[in-house]
Design a protein that fits this description.
Elements lengths: L29 E7 L4 E3 L6 E2 L6 E5 L8 E6 L4 E4 L10 E4 L6 E5 L8 E6 L4 E4 L10 E4 L6 E5 L8 E5 L5 E5 L7 E6 L6 E5 L8 E6 L4 E5 L9 E4 L6 E6 L72 E3 L5 H6 L6 E4 L2 E4 L10 E4 L3 E4 L1 E3 L4 E3 L2 E4 L25 E3 L2 E2 L1 E2 L10 E5 L4 E4 L8 E4 L5 E2 L6 E3 L2 E3 L8 E4 L14 E3 L2 E3 L4 E5 L4 E3 L2 E3 L4 E8 L2 E3 L2 E3 L8 H4 L1 E9 L2 E3 L2 E3 L6 E4 L5 E4 L2 E3 L6 E4 L4 E4 L2 E3 L12 E6 L4 E4 L2 E3 L3 E7 L18 E3 L2 E4 L4 E5 L5 H4 L4 E3 L2 E4 L6 E2 L4 E2 L1 H6 L4
Parallel strand pairs: 21-22, 22-24, 23-25, 24-36, 25-37, 31-32, 35-38, 36-39, 37-40, 38-41, 39-42, 40-43, 41-44, 42-45, 43-46, 44-47, 45-48, 46-49, 48-51, 49-52, 50-53, 51-54, 52-55, 53-56, 54-57, 55-58, 56-59, 57-60, 58-61, 59-62, 60-63, 61-64, 62-65
Antiparallel strand pairs: 1-2, 1-20, 2-3, 4-5, 5-6, 6-7, 8-9, 9-10, 10-11, 12-13, 13-14, 14-15, 16-17, 17-18, 18-19, 26-34, 27-28, 28-33, 29-30, 29-34, 32-33, 65-66
Length: about 750
């Protein structure tokens, strides 16, 4: 997941690999390493063991830069995220990008003969390979069907021509099929090799420039190698020693330039230590609004109330020797006030409750492993009242703000209640309280719940924010920040002095934190701030938001936000930025939010969305609304918009009343609509940079798959200039249409593909 841009570092003593392959009769540098998926530890022959990736990742071992030496990488199957390194040690990734869909199976090889190994995936649902010639986000440079749905992929240069060829193996019976060429869907070899308990490994075991397959047999810790293309059926059996895990064969010392290979993807890997998967929230019913009206929600099914298991939160900066440690129970603000602007504070392991910090410019806050800043108070002293329980003395009462869906009448009250970390639903009367819900009687200062509190940890959010201030160059990293009573449009981390007025701080660095279960916004950033590598989830209104010039939003995972039930047409979902200039939103993973995944609304100028993965959000995937110049490129957008598919409001990408937007290189798959331009009269909003019109919209070179809905341009202002004279174009897009070809909107009507093309659109 994107929040782990660097490898997890854990200090321990590991046993180095013994008995690695380089047989006495071998001139090859091909050897066997092992990866432990439970701890993400690597055991490299002849070197020290180290950690890279996260538990549950799929290992990759290939030559990513063409120097003849294999180095590590991992593929995160649940997200399709890749972290590839040019080294053999714990450290940050040299290449980070998304490729493929969750559930795809990775492999790597030299597909074009240039001496550099690059990524590929096998998609079981299609029995199809997608191979890429560079280690970067984008479309497959070659794709073809081969194999079978239960096959596990591998690759090798089996004929010595310098090109790698793909294959698949059935893990249940050892059946192997190898493709005839690197772009071929015809098999050149089919055979059985090994048993169901074996793992396939590919390498050039004798240094002749040709790969052969082998199977690692864990019971005997041996590798049996064969050549399916010749008479040598069982060439060697190697003893691999005591180290266990997933075997990977590769060239480590560079001698001979042997091609490096990825091991067979083991079907069991997905069940090892994978983080808990959260189900997608059920889509609410679309509102029965007329086509020309903007989205109006009737209700939204809340996101899951309990957060998924979290990885280790690792700071993005090192801890200096002069860092000032602050233990739980100590006032963080008092220590901050006693020190100058260059001070670094180490927030000690444990829970720091009801702490709110106004830093000085230049200060740094680093979380020790296990450090949690909580805006919640533990509730004790419960008394029974019939079928309910209550606790008194609750005088907190934050600012009410925002519009709620009908099923969440108190979404705009900033106080939340958590039972064993699960968010309870805030109902509007004592009589409505049942198991799973609660009521705050503000008049009597009592909180009521509908379940026996015995043996449970019950908390209510009290403190508004963790960090705020109109200051500059503040660093916050390595912390878990949770359960703050931030009102709507206010962040638990907020780089402003207050929610209104021109009080922006500047150039904050907010990196590698987990920000969860707060009421309003997880992180609200402003001028020049960098929000990088955070895991922002289960917040009440939004995950991320902000305004101002020069912000960078990169490598964050943003999920399950709008958990309190805000009407997302008002403001709710994954993110929302306004009044920004030169905003960069890059390589983020936004999914399962109740509302849009990524959203710029009101006077955003010169926005760049690139390399993001946006999936399964109830609202629009990427939404650029009443704003100005933007580029939306090379994003993967799937399964969004089910919450409101009327007109084109369920599209993967929507540009609404905004000029000068270019959209290209995106893969837009099975959203409620495809890619849409929408022209309405938006005189209700400021227009700082000119008319709010769809003009110079250039949609080109995208892959768009639609099983429902439409792609195109619509208007409800009675002005056909949007079709005839504003330079709006759809060109060179690739469409996959399922069920009907009437999937387009243009010139005030639904169009077939033929009609769409007749307008000069493609």
């Amino acid at each position: 997941m994107k929040r782990l841009a660097a490898a997890i570092a854990v200090f321990a003593i590991l046993v180095p690999l013994q008995g690695a392959i380089a047989g006495a009769d071998s001139t090859s540098g091909t050897e066997v390493a092992f990866y432990d998926p439970g701890s993400s530890s690597w055991h490299i022959p002849g070197g020290d063991s180290f950690y890279y990736g996260a538990p549950g990742d799929t290992p990759l071992l290939c030559d990513w830069n063409g120097d003849g030496i294999a180095t590590v990488g991992v593929y995160r199957e649940t997200t399709g995220y890749l972290l590839l390194s040019n080294g053999l040690s714990t450290g940050v990734a040299d290449y980070e990008f998304y490729y493929g869909n969750p559930g795809d199976r990775p492999l790597c090889g030299d597909w074009n003969g240039d001496g550099v190994d690059t990524i590929g995936i096998f998609r079981p649902s299609e029995s199809r390979f997608y191979l890429r010639d560079t280690n970067s986000l984008g479309f497959g440079d070659r794709d073809f069907q081969f194999g079978f749905s239960k096959g596990l992929p591998f690759a090798g240069d089996f004929n010595g021509d310098g090109y790698d060829t793909v294959g698949v193996r059935d893990p249940k019976n050892g059946f192997v099929a190898i493709a005839r060429g690197h772009v071929s869907d015809a098999p050149v070899m089919e055979a059985y090799f090994g048993s169901s308990s074996d793992t396939l490994v590919v390498g050039d075991w004798d240094g002749d420039g040709t790969d052969r397959i082998g199977v690692y047999q864990p019971a005997t810790k041996t590798l049996a190698v064969t050549n399916l293309f010749g008479t040598d059926k069982i060439a060697h059996v190697y003893d691999l020693g005591a180290v266990t895990g997933i075997p990977l064969a590769a060239e480590f010392d560079g001698s001979g330039g042997v091609q490096t290979k990825h091991p067979e993807y083991t079907g069991e890997l997905a069940d090892v230590v994978k983080p808990k998967a959260q189900p997608a929230p059920a889509a609410p019913a679309p509102a029965p609004a007329p086509a020309e009206e903007p989205p109006v929600e009737q209700s939204a099914t809340p996101v899951p109330s309990a957060a998924p298991a979290s990885p280790i939160v690792k700071p993005a900066v090192s801890i200096p020797g002069n860092a000032i440690r602050i233990a739980p129970g100590t006032s963080i603000q008092s220590v901050v006030d006693q020190n100058g602007g260059s001070a670094t504070f180490l927030i000690g392991a444990g829970v720091h409750r009801e702490q709110s910090v106004k830093p000085k410019s230049g200060q740094t806050f680093i979380g020790e492993s296990g450090a949690v800043m909580s805006g919640a108070r533990l509730l004790e002293g419960w008394q029974r009242d019939g079928n309910l329980w209550f606790v008194g003395g609750q005088g907190q009462s934050g600012r009410l703000h925002g519009d709620c869906v009908s099923g969440a009448p108190r979404c705009n009250y900033p106080e939340e209640l958590f039972v064993n970390d699960a968010r309870m639903k805030h109902v509007s009367s004592k009589g409505s309280v049942a198991a799973g819900s609660w009521f705050f009687d503000y008049g009597s200062d009592r909180i009521y719940i509908g379940q026996d509190p015995a043996g449970k940890r019950i908390e209510t959010s009290v403190t508004e924010s963790a960090f705020t201030g109109q200051v500059s160059n503040v660093t916050i990293t390595g912390l878990v920040i949770e359960k703050y009573a931030s009102p709507a449009q206010v962040g638990a981390i907020d780089t402003r002095a207050n929610p209104s007025g021109n009080t922006n701080g500047s150039d904050w660095f907010i990196a590698n934190n987990e920000v969860r279960n707060n009421h309003g916004v997880g992180i609200k950033s402003t001028n020049g701030s960098r929000v990088v590598g955070n895991y922002v989830h289960h917040n009440g209104q939004l995950g991320l938001g902000g305004d101002g010039p020069g912000m960078l939003i990169e490598n964050n995972e943003i999920s399950y936000n709008n958990a309190s039930g805000y009407a997302y047409g008002w403001e709710g979902g994954g993110t929302k930025w306004s009044k920004s200039t030169d905003l960069v939103v890059r390589n983020n993973y936004s999914h399962h939010n109740v509302g849009p995944g990524l959203w710029t609304d009101i006077d955003n100028m010169n926005t760049l969305y690139e390399g993001n993965r946006v999936t399964n959000n109830v609202g629009i995937g990427i939404f650029h609304e009443i704003s100005y110049k933007a580029v939306i490129r090379n994003n993967y957008i799937e399964g969004n918009g089910a919450g409101h598919s009327a007109w084109l409001w369920g599209a993967g990408i929507v540009v609404a009343a905004s000029p000068d937007v270019e959209i290209y290189g995106n893969e837009v798959i099975n959203n409620a609509d495809g890619i849409a331009g929408i022209q309405q009269n938006r005189s209700d909003a400021p227009a700082s940079f000119g008319p709010q019109i769809v003009a110079n919209l250039y949609v080109h070179d995208n892959k768009i798959t639609m099983s429902e809905g439409h792609t195109g341009l619509v208007q409800d202002v009675g002005d056909n200039a949007v079709f005839t004279s504003r330079n709006n174009r759809f060109e060179n897009n690739e469409y996959t249409l399922n069920g009907s070809d009437r999937r387009f909107e243009w010139n005030n009507g639904e169009r077939s593909l033929q009609e769409w093309n007749s307008f000069g659109l493609s």
